[in-house]
Amino acid sequence: MYESFFGLEKKPFEITPDPAFMYASQQHKEALASLIYGVKEKKGLMVLTGEVGTGKTLLVRCLLQMLDEGTKTAYIINPRLSLMEFFHSIAHEFDLGGEFSSKAAFLDRINGFLLDTAAKGHRALLIVDEAQNLGLPILEEIRLLMNLETSKQKLLQVILAGQPELHKIIEFSCMRQFKQRISLRAHLNPLSRQETALYIRRRLEVAGSSKGEIFERRSVSLIHKYSSGIPRLINVVCDNSLLTAYALGKKRVEPAVVKEVIGDLEGKGLKRAGSLVWPRDERDLVQEWTMPRNSGRQSGTRWVWAAGALAVAFAGAWVALGGGAQWIPRVWAGLKRFLDLAG
Ligand SMILES: Nc1ncnc2c1ncn2[C@@H]1O[C@H](COP(=O)(O)OP(=O)(O)O)[C@@H](O)[C@H]1O
Ligand SMILES: [Mg+2]
């Protein structure tokens, strides 16, 4: 939408992890290098952790791009699966073919595949993303799969990528054997203020920006402060800031634009708008919830009395003004009906 306005060929701050946009910070470089080394050196179990949005999935995708034909990979993105579903996903990813009805059948199939792969001088790598969601039974099965071996070598390498909770799971006493197998750990921290500036610049360059800085220096500081250096949040603020600056016809993203975007993301705009159309505050709500249950009926009765009194006053005024004595019995009957209702 705003791409051509800023001289860009594509959107620079999409949320999907696209390796083409990789900004290789020192820690991203180191983590990637360790994983490549780990795979090449046939390290058994590798663990990559980092807070949500720090770039784990992107890093794994970069790794996948860099591996050659000799590495057969199974990449499991969503591991909230039952045991059999997990086995089926691995079988699908390794292209083991066909259905199998039992765990024994799966183990037989994967054992054959791993032996075959090793015989060809290739390696087999299982990568599980969002691994903090893995249940303990599946983690135990992964451990057992890593036990498959020939007399010379282990047959399956594993990378678990996940949020820092993964470390806590690995620390459980029942995970002792699992923990002992970890031969490599890498962790991604949020970006520093300086890295945030370089990150934004890198993504803009990949998107085709040839001009100087689109984001003012103070804007970058605000973005870093709000996002705490988490790339996914940086993307959200930057994308919205470009859109707002475009709507205002500004070629540079000033701090005021970033402040407005952050305010909107935090829902401040919504609260402001809400208070205009819905002026109730918490006390009103509490009062409504704590009113006696029959309070509705009471106020209804009050309305009947008020309507009756109005009718009497109206009829009285009419008679006084000479509206006709012949109407008095009818008015009286009507009044009685009101009194009955109210009683
Ligand atoms: N080093 C980086 N270079 C470029 N983009 C990055 C980097 N790290 C994260 N991102 C971007 O931030 C967003 C979140 O990254 P992602 O890999 O999904 O995080 P995680 O898997 O840790 O939750 C994605 O849009 C991704 O492209
Ligand atoms: Mg991810």
What does it look like?
- The chain has 343 residues and is an alpha/beta fold.
- The protein folds into three domains: 4-14 and 192-268, Helicase, Ruva Protein, domain 3 (Orthogonal Bundle); 26-188, 3-Layer(aba) Sandwich (Rossmann fold), CATH 3.40.50.300; 301-342.
- The protein has helices at residues 26-40, 56-66, 83-93, 103-119, 136-146, 165-171, 176-180, 193-206, 217-227, 231-247, 255-265, 268-277, 282-290, 295-320, 328-342, and strands at 45-50, 71-76, 123-128, 156-162, 182-188.
- The chain has a five-stranded parallel sheet with strand order 2-3-4-1-5, with helices on both faces.
- Helix 5 (136-146) links the parallel strand 3 (123-128) and strand 4 (156-162).
- Helix 1 (26-40) packs across helix 2 (56-66), helix 8 crosses helix 9 (217-227) and helix 14 (295-320) runs antiparallel to helix 15.
- The longest helix is centred in the last third of the chain and has 26 residues, at 295-320.
- It starts with 25 loop residues before the first helix and ends with a helix.
- Mean pLDDT is 85; it is low at 272-285 and 288-301.
- Adenosine-5'-diphosphate binds at residues 15, 17-18, 21-23, 25, 28, 50, 52-58, 231-232, 235.
Question: What hetero molecules are in the model?
Answer: adenosine-5'-diphosphate, magnesium ion
Order of helices and strands: HEHEHHEHEHHEHHHHHHHH
Rounded to the nearest angstrom, the radius of gyration is 34 Å
The CATH homology group name of the largest domain? P-loop containing nucleotide triphosphate hydrolases
For the record, the CATH architecture of the largest domain stands as: 3-Layer(aba) Sandwich
What is the oligomer described by this structure?
single chain
Shape: globular
